[in-house]
Amino acid sequence: MAFGDDPSDQGLREGWRAFCRQLEAAGEQAFKDYNPANPLQRADAFRFLTQNLGQAFDFALETRDTRYPAIHRFCTPYCKLGGDAADFTYQQAWIDGESVYRISGNRGSARFFNITVQGERPACQPGTDIPSLHDPFGDIPEANIFGHQLQCAWDGSFELYIGGPERAGNWLPTTAKSRKLFIRNGFDRWDELPATISIERVDMDSPRPLPTPETLVEAMGWAGNFLESMMRDWPDHSYHHSPAVDPDHVNAFPGTAANEDSDRKRGRLAASLCWELAADEALIVEFDQHSGFWMMASMGAFFTSMDYLYRPVSHTPARTAMGADGVVRLVLCAQDPGLHNWVDTQGFTRGNLIYRNLLSTENAEFRTRLVKTAELDAVLPADTPRVTAEQRRQQLWTRFNAIRRRYAM
């Protein structure tokens, strides 16, 4: 048996070759101007590509059939995508507007939990000429439910129905344009656990059909477009189209924070700072503590979370220490300065710092100051919380163990 013995051979080979050409083109984006020309960040670009190469066909093929839905965890400590935050977990499930689905499981204890029905993905965002972000993003939120709105049993167990006629209890509507569920857990304390859930179509009565050659060729096209557009859109899409991101004025937050209707459905307000630091520099970021659930996390050039499994690259209220003035002070730099609220840049020279305020529209007022790392002790308040080498070691072990619990690693 050889090539050409089956009528589908030619289509499969052409589809695969086209996918490989797109993969090659995607790799060329590693050298874009927005990615600093240093060894660590050039390597990180290819790591971003290879991580998502590993899940491209999970999106495009394995979970794609909406009649046989599956919940796919598309961001982990070993796979980053889409401006992922270090203290979120992200999952999605492809759905349609005709079927009825049931999600069941346990709410968990994460401070933030949200399930959103996502609708169409238009060529441009409604009312603008801004092109939509690459698939599977860019779709429009239609309906959502937060963790505090779920009706749960005493042990946290629940069922949530998606689509079909309105029903009592936990239910989310769909429309003819509904296409996926977007599921997020957001964590504050290290002891919080994510929701554990599964999904099925309620009237499923037969096994999932095996993929045909036509299905595979279509999946190859989807996966190739995903990888090529992913490498093209990050960080360019945010840099060119988001008023809350200003790459031309580094080390300061723009005056505008994202607070569109779609963000309200997702339950967040976001602001972004583009940082650029030399090896001997540190950036001090300050804002007044407030009662909201905020997150601050550092990302690389492609808007992917930094190494949150091993490094202190993110902070939340429960894990942040303050002095007597009630001001949150975070310090970004490459070397450990012995400060409690250190944000490790992991040796990168440029990246992005993302602030998220969840379940609130209150925007913080940020103050930033660029200093030499050697000057930190002189410019920070005397009561700025500090840590010993042993305390840092314990911090890192606590982080490591908590992240492993979140992902059942």
TrEMBL record:
Q: Where do the DUF1214 domain residues begin and end?
A: 92-183
Q: Which InterPro entries match?
A: DUF1214 (IPR010621)
| Domain of life according to the entry | Bacteria
Q: Which Pfam families match?
A: DUF1214
Name the UniProt record assigns to this protein: DUF1214 domain-containing protein
Organism, scientific name: Mangrovimicrobium sediminis
